[in-house]
Amino acid sequence: MWATCGDASGTAGGEPPVRVTVVTTLPDRRLLLVHAHPDDESIGTGATMAHYAALGAHVTLVTCTLGEEGEVHVPELAQLVAAEADQLGGYRIGELAEACAALGVTDHRFLGGAGRYRDSGMMGLATNEHPRAFWRADLDEAAGHLLEIMREVRPQVLVTYDPNGFYGHPDHIQAHRVAMRAVELAAAEGIAPAKVYWTAMPRSVLEAGMTHFAESSDNPFAGIEHIDDLPFGTPDPEIAARVDATDRHAAKEAAMRAHATQIPATSWLYAIAGNFGAEFMGVEYFTLAVGEKGPGVGPYGWEEDLFAGLGLDGEAGRAPVVAAGVR
């Protein structure tokens, strides 16, 4: 990274400050992901993040809250919860750093800085009304924080949740709103990502999972009689991309284990990972919300690369990203 500028001293007469142009050399392919809480990135997009990081793409993760309202599955840390010491958010910063290291992701930011927005808790709880709850955040202000990152990184691809936040959590819904508003603001400046994806799960995959777990004592679908009873699930023809990162499934599992307070060691996620971990941990799906779909394969033409159709070579080439600022 380097900067060029003229005389930065100014004058005693109060002339305007000197404008400084910063040129940052980043890889040709730049991916930005917007998630609500620490651990969401690993569960939902960990394999994709590890895949592109390993290929040399620049992967930027933006997390909107510290996850202060999460449960604690480590008994000796139980007093960190919001109702006790209320220190869980700070602890989860460390868990997230460890998870990012496992995924090979070196560029992580908290939206507006760590602690600006608080975990809102599940929909309908009193925590939704906390003064710093992300659910209550001013949309343009929060989107402005994300826009600053987009100006710096200039991602060609952005990944976030669908309008229902994948499963209805208020912070996931708000993350979607903030990300899409930031894309609008970036478009007005001519720097919007070429493609925006939303995380998704094909109905065919869910149906296979329900069948697999039907006789299991640790059935995550217990009480669900029909796939339509689930708050998520996308018809297969509506899926746009399938990222096969089966060679990175171990990195995703390691990242999930880094979030020990949130994902107990006995979780069904690890049980299924042990049975067919590469397929379960290493394949992730997306719908395309903004942009043109690139070449794909299979009966529905699913893309195999989120950068498909953008004319990038896919290698770890480097290109200048220019941002102007005032010193």
From TrEMBL:
<dbReference type="Pfam" id="PF02585">
    <property type="entry name" value="PIG-L"/>
</dbReference>
<feature type="binding site">
    <location>
        <position position="37"/>
    </location>
    <ligand>
        <name>Zn(2+)</name>
    </ligand>
</feature>
<comment type="function">
    <text>Catalyzes the deacetylation of 1D-myo-inositol 2-acetamido-2-deoxy-alpha-D-glucopyranoside (GlcNAc-Ins) in the mycothiol biosynthesis pathway.</text>
</comment>
<feature type="binding site">
    <location>
        <position position="172"/>
    </location>
    <ligand>
        <name>Zn(2+)</name>
    </ligand>
</feature>
<feature type="binding site">
    <location>
        <position position="40"/>
    </location>
    <ligand>
        <name>Zn(2+)</name>
    </ligand>
</feature>
<dbReference type="GO" id="GO:0008270">
    <property type="term" value="F:zinc ion binding"/>
</dbReference>
<comment type="similarity">
    <text>Belongs to the MshB deacetylase family.</text>
</comment>
<dbReference type="InterPro" id="IPR017810">
    <property type="entry name" value="Mycothiol_biosynthesis_MshB"/>
</dbReference>
<keyword id="KW-0862">Zinc</keyword>
<protein>
    <recommendedName>
        <fullName>1D-myo-inositol 2-acetamido-2-deoxy-alpha-D-glucopyranoside deacetylase</fullName>
        <ecNumber>3.5.1.103</ecNumber>
    </recommendedName>
</protein>
<keyword id="KW-0479">Metal-binding</keyword>
<dbReference type="GO" id="GO:0035595">
    <property type="term" value="F:N-acetylglucosaminylinositol deacetylase activity"/>
</dbReference>
<dbReference type="InterPro" id="IPR003737">
    <property type="entry name" value="GlcNAc_PI_deacetylase-related"/>
</dbReference>
<dbReference type="InterPro" id="IPR024078">
    <property type="entry name" value="LmbE-like_dom_sf"/>
</dbReference>
<keyword id="KW-0378">Hydrolase</keyword>
<dbReference type="GO" id="GO:0010125">
    <property type="term" value="P:mycothiol biosynthetic process"/>
</dbReference>
